Amino acid sequence: MIKLYGMTGSGNCWKPAALLRLLGQPFEWIETSTLAGETRKPEFLALNANGRVPLLQFDDGRLLAESNAMLCHFAEGSAYLPAPGYERSKVLEWLFFEQYSHEPYIATVRFWIHFLGKREAWRDRIAEASIRGRAALGVMEQRLAAHDFLAGDFSIADIALYAYTHVADEGDFDLTPFPAVRAWLARCEAQAGFVPMRLP
Ligand SMILES: N[C@@H](CCC(=O)N[C@@H](CS)C(=O)NCC(=O)O)C(=O)O
Q: Are 27 and 3 in contact (CB under 8 A)?
């Protein structure tokens, strides 16, 4: 059985779990708290020198880190990832966007406010990062105003961006000015087999 080390409430950890559920592939969830420092213990660092979850371990012991690499791995050959070529590259474009322009601001501000309780103490850095987070939401809004999904049909691009967008309010991001994003969140949730974030 595939082992998935992850922390409940983490969007990055929810991504592979959600895809595995959509694909009907069983896995064992191993709760690993970053807040308790479990990803920085020697035994975890021996599995992932980067000290982060999610982390996958296959039956034969091979390891895979990085949530979007996991999405690509499991989506191969499924409806959630087009065949190699331009359509696939557009999916990858959104995965890289998520990791460089979205997650570092929206997920990070959520972590500071919701998990660390630093809304007041880190007001300045939150304000600065929030500008970039709103810019990322604006990019999504522009695309989704004219399309149902981020890249063609519902794909791992939507799973990756859903992860932290749907809990952006926990980082004080107001989605009211992004109606197309809100409608897209509902479309994602309407996908057959779509599981909520509060796994397992
Ligand atoms: N780029 C990585 C980011 C993973 C990441 O930042 N994980 C956080 C939890 S969401 C973590 O493990 N933090 C613990 C730490 O940095 O010590 C991915 O997408 O998997």
A: yes
d(CA 147, ligand 1 centre) in Å: 30
Architecture of domain 86-189: Up-down Bundle (1.20)
Q: Is the pLDDT of residue 200 over 60?
A: no
Q: What is the pLDDT of residue 196?
A: 84
Compute, in angstroms, the gap from residue 75 CA to the centroid of ligand 1: 21
Residues contacting residue 29 through CB under 8 Å, at least 6 positions apart: 4, 6, 17, 199, 200
Best probe residue, ligand 1, of 8, 12, 159 (max atoms within 8 Å of C-beta): 12
Domain made up of 2-75: CATH architecture:
3-Layer(aba) Sandwich (3.40)
pTM above 0.85, yes or no: yes
Give the mutation target among 52, 99, 110 for probing the ligand 1 site: most ligand atoms within 8 A of CB. Answer: 52
